[in-house]
Specification:
This protein has 724 residues and is of the alpha+beta class.
C-alpha cells in the first residue's frame, strides 16, 4: 500500500499466510517462521484464528549465548549500530509542508510586531441568575467588524504580573495561550476570553468540571457578543486541555454564531481517557490537578503542586480583573469541588458520588453530546499527542462527533499541550510547541495550523475532496529515514492496516519466541507481581507531564521495575503499528479484585535497550464484553473505531473474580503510531500494580498468573503493516 501524497516510502501489507510468504520471497524479507507452515499442515486450529504473517528473522543456534566480552558479539554490535545510524529514525516533527506555514506566518521567523498595540478591556458580564463573569475583549488595532475567537478557561484568562516584570508586558498575560492569542490578533481576529464560573476573577462556584451552568453561560456570553459593535457574525471556539472540553460543549449548544472549533489536547470520555482508564482510578493526575485547582481558585498560588507553586509565586500575583477589590470579592465566593475525594468515591462509570452532588463523571464528558456536536455542522480541528492521554479522545471525537466536511485531526509525537516532542532528547524542543515561546513570540507550527484552520473557515473556503482525503495527519514515531514520518488519511483507521495476532508462549526454551503467530500447543503460565516491593520507581510518565508540562517525559527507569515480559523473535522487516492495540488475556488470581497493566515496548536484542511505546491497564471486575456493533446512544461514541468490543464499566456489569478460576480479560492499549525497525523485537511486559499512578484494591499477597495454551489463547492484537 502506498502512502499517497506523503511519498518517499513503500508500504506493503500481507494478506493470508500463503500470500504473505510469496510476497516476502519476492521482497527478500526472509522466512516467515516454521510455525506458520506447521499450523497449516497440522490443522490444529482454524485458519481464521491465525494472523497475517509478520516476517520474523530466523535466529541462528547459539547466537543468543554470545557473551558481552565475546569478540563475535562485539563485532555484531558494531555492525548493528552502524546499520542503525545509516537507517536512522526520523523523529524530528518539522512541518510536513513549510510553504503552508509561510502562508500564515511571517518568513522572518517572528510574528511582525504591530505598530499599534491591541486594546484589551475587561467586562463583568451578568448572567441570567445574577452571577458576574470576568470577560476580556482584545481587539486588533484600528479594527472594525472582525471575526472573533471565543476562549473559555479555568486557568485564569489573564495573570497579574509582579511589579518587576510588568515592563515586559505588552499583551494581556496568559502563559498557556499567549502565542495563540498574539497570532490571532496579528491576523485580524478579536478575542473574547472569559474565566468560567467559580474560577479566576469570575463569581460563583465550580461544582464539577464543565458543569451545566458553565455551558449555559457560554451561550449567554455569545448572545452578549452579538450586541457588540465589533461583532461580524463569525465566532470560532478555541481551547487547550480543559478549555478545549469547554469549547466542545459550546459547539454542542448549536449557537448560530459558532462557525468552527479548535480543540487541542482535550479529553472526550473523562472516565476512559483520564479518570479511570480500563476502570482503574488514576489518582496521580486527579490528586495533583485537584491541588492545582484549589490553589488557583483560592488565590493561594504557593499551595499548587511543587515546583508549579514556587514558579507561580515568582512571576505572578494572581488573576487580573477590573479591580483588586472586585477580584477579592469574586474569590471569596469560590467553592471548588474536591476531585480527589470524588475519585475515591467511585468504582464504576455510573456511580454518583456525593462530592459531585448526585452527578456522574459522564456528565462532564463531551462524548455524551456527540450527536449534538455532529448535527451542529461545526467543523472541528482536533489536535492530540501519542504520548498524552488525548490521542484516544481526539480519534473518537473525530469519528463520532466531528462534522463531515471541513473537520481535521492532527496527532503528533507529543506530550500534553504539545510542549515536547517525546521522540527527541532533552536539549530539543518540538517544532509545534507554543509553551516555550512566551517572552517572545516564535514560529510555533501548531499556532500556524490553528490560524490557518480559522482563516479558511472565516473566508468560507469550501472543503475540497482532496483536502477531505487528507483530513487526518499523523506522525509515525521511530520511522527510518526512507519512510515518511508524517502521513495523511481520509478516515480512521488508515487504510492498509491489518489485525496481526501474536500469541503468548511462556516458559524457557520456547523455540518460537515468547510471541508467536500460531496458537500455543502446550499450556504454560507467567506469574505477575501484584504488590509493589519497596518504593515505587519514579518515572516521568505521560500522566506526570499532563500536570508538570515542563518536565521531560522519561520511561527509561521502567526497566528497573522488574516486570516479567515476553519477546518476539527479531523482525525481518520494519513493522508499523498504527491505531489501538488490544490484548486478550486469560488470568487466574488468588484475589477477587485484580488489576493488570500491559506495557508495549521496542526491544533491541543487540544493545539490550527497551523503549516504551504504549500501555494499557484494566480492572478484572469490568471484563464483561459487548460487541462494538451493539453500542447504543452515547456509549457508541466512547468506542475506538478500530476496536471490535467495548465495556460499559457500569455497576450492573461488574463481576468480581472467583479466586483460582481462569477468567478472560480483553482490553485496549492506548493508541499509538510507532515503527518497530528491522532487527528489533516486540516486547510485552506485565504488572499487577502501579501504585504511583493508580488506586489498586489488590492485596500485596495476591498471586496473579497469565495463562496460555490450547484452551487459554492469550494474545495481543496489533493494527500493523510490514514495510520494506
Amino acid at each position: 500500500f502506498g502512502f499517497g501524497s506523503a511519498g518517499g516510502g513503500v508500504g506493503v501489507g500481507f494478506g493470508t499466510k500463503a500470500e504473505g510468504g510469496t510476497m516476502m520471497a519476492k521482497l527478500g524479507l526472509g522466512a516467515v517462521g516454521e510455525e506458520c507452515g506447521d499450523a497449516a499442515k497440522g490443522g490444529h486450529e482454524p485458519a481464521e484464528e491465525a494472523s497475517s504473517a509478520i516476517p520474523f528473522a530466523v535466529v541462528e543456534p547459539g547466537a543468543e549465548r554470545l557473551g558481552v566480552c565475546d569478540p563475535q558479539a562485539a563485532l555484531r554490535r558494531m555492525g548493528h549500530l552502524r546499520a542503525l545510524r545509516a537507517r536512522g529514525a526520523k523523529n524530528h516533527d518539522g512541518h510536513w509542508d513549510k510553504a503552508e506555514v509561510d502562508e500564515v506566518m511571517p518568513k522572518e521567523g517572528l510574528f511582525a510586531r504591530p505598530q499599534e498595540e491591541p486594546s484589551c478591556v475587561t467586562h463583568m458580564v451578568t448572567m441570567s441568575d445574577g452571577c458576574e463573569l470576568a470577560v476580556d475583549v482584545i481587539l486588533p488595532p484600528k479594527s472594525g467588524k472582525v471575526p472573533c475567537v471565543f476562549h473559555q478557561t479555568r486557568y485564569y484568562r489573564q495573570w497579574r504580573l509582579r511589579k518587576m516584570l510588568r515592563a515586559l508586558e505588552t499583551f494581556p498575560m496568559d502563559p498557556i495561550n499567549l502565542a495563540f492569542k498574539k497570532a490571532m490578533i496579528a491576523k485580524g481576529f478579536a478575542i473574547v476570553s472569559m474565566d468560567v464560573r467559580g474560577t479566576g476573577a469570575s463569581f460563583g462556584q465550580w461544582t464539577s468540571p464543565c458543569q451545566v451552568k458553565e455551558r449555559e453561560d457560554s451561550v449567554e456570553v455569545l448572545d452578549w457578543m452579538e450586541r457588540q459593535p465589533w461583532y461580524n457574525g463569525n465566532v470560532f471556539c478555541f481551547g487547550i486541555s480543559y478549555d478545549a472540553m469547554a469549547a466542545m460543549f459550546t459547539v454542542s449548544k448549536a449557537h448560530s454564531s459558532v462557525k468552527g472549533c479548535a480543540s487541542l489536547f482535550s479529553y472526550f470520555d473523562v472516565w476512559s481517557d483520564l479518570g479511570a482508564p480500563g476502570g482503574v482510578l488514576l489518582h496521580y493526575f486527579f490528586d495533583n490537578w485537584n491541588q492545582l485547582l484549589h490553589a488557583l481558585d483560592s488565590g493561594r498560588l504557593i499551595e499548587a503542586p511543587q515546583p508549579l507553586g514556587a514558579s507561580f509565586v515568582a512571576g505572578f500575583k494572581g488573576v487580573k480583573g477590573v479591580s483588586k477589590g472586585l477580584v477579592k470579592k469574586a474569590v471569596a465566593t469560590h467553592d471548588t469541588v474536591d476531585l480527589a475525594a470524588c475519585l475515591r468515591e467511585m468504582g464504576h462509570r455510573d456511580d454518583t458520588p456525593a462530592t459531585l452532588r448526585g452527578r456522574k463523571m459522564d456528565d462532564s464528558s463531551p462524548y455524551t453530546r456527540s450527536r449534538e456536536m455532529r448535527e451542529s455542522g461545526v467543523p472541528l480541528f482536533l489536535v492530540a499527542g501519542w504520548l498524552d492521554g488525548s490521542a484516544r479522545a481526539s480519534i473518537n471525537a473525530f469519528c463520532h462527533a466531528a462534522a463531515v466536511g471541513g473537520s481535521r485531526l492532527l496527532i503528533g509525537p507529543w506530550t500534553h499541550g504539545g510542549v515536547q516532542n517525546a521522540c527527541l532528547g532533552p536539549g530539543q524542543r518540538s517544532d509545534f510547541s507554543s509553551f516555550h515561546k512566551v517572552v517572545k513570540v516564535g514560529r510555533s507550527k501548531l499556532v500556524a495550523e490553528v490560524i490557518r484552520f480559522f482563516l479558511d473557515l472565516a473566508s468560507d473556503s469550501p472543503c475540497s475532496a482532496e483536502r477531505q482525503d487528507k483530513a487526518i495527519t499523523y506522525f509515525t514515531m521511530n520511522a527510518p529515514r526512507a519512510i515518511p514520518s508524517w502521513r495523511t488519511a481520509g478516515s480512521w483507521p488508515p487504510e492498509g492496516l491489518e489485525d496481526r495476532t501474536l500469541y503468548f508462549r511462556f516458559g524457557d526454551g520456547e523455540p518460537e519466541g515468547g510471541l508467536s503467530q500460531s496458537p500455543p500447543r502446550r499450556a504454560s503460565e507467567l506469574e505477575v507481581q501484584a504488590g509493589q516491593e519497596g518504593d515505587p520507581v519514579k518515572i516521568n510518565s505521560r500522566y506526570h507531564t499532563m500536570i508538570f508540562v515542563g518536565d521531560l517525559l522519561n520511561y527509561k527507569r521502567l526497566t528497573r521495575c522488574g516486570h516479567p515480559f515476553v519477546d518476539s523473535r527479531p523482525l525481518d522487516c520494519h513493522l508499523e503499528v498504527t491505531g489501538t492495540p488490544y490484548v486478550d488475556l486469560w488470568i487466574v488470581s488468588s484475589h477477587p479484585e485484580t488489576d493488570i497493566i500491559v506495557y508495549l515496548q521496542d526491544y533491541d536484542p543487540t544493545t539490550g535497550s527497551a523503549n516504551y511505546v504504549s500501555e494499557g491497564v484494566f480492572r478484572a471486575r469490568h471484563r464483561k464484553l459487548y460487541p462494538a456493533s451493539s453500542g447504543e446512544g452515547h456509549y457508541k461514541s466512547s468506542i475506538p473505531p478500530d476496536i471490535p468490543f467495548f465495556h460499559t464499566f457500569d455497576k450492573a456489569d461488574a463481576e468480581l473474580l472467583e479466586p483460582g478460576k481462569p477468567a478472560r480479560m480483553v482490553f485496549e492499549i492506548m493508541p499509538t503510531s510507532y515503527c518497530f525497525q528491522r532487527g528489533s523485537c516486540i516486547r510485552v511486559a506485565f504488572s499487577g500494580s502501579d501504585e504511583r499512578h493508580y488506586l489498586h484494591n489488590t492485596e500485596e499477597s495476591t498471586r496473579i498468573k497469565v495463562l496460555c495454551g490450547p484452551e487459554h489463547k492469550s494474545s495481543i492484537h496489533l493494527p500493523a503493516r510490514a514495510l520494506q
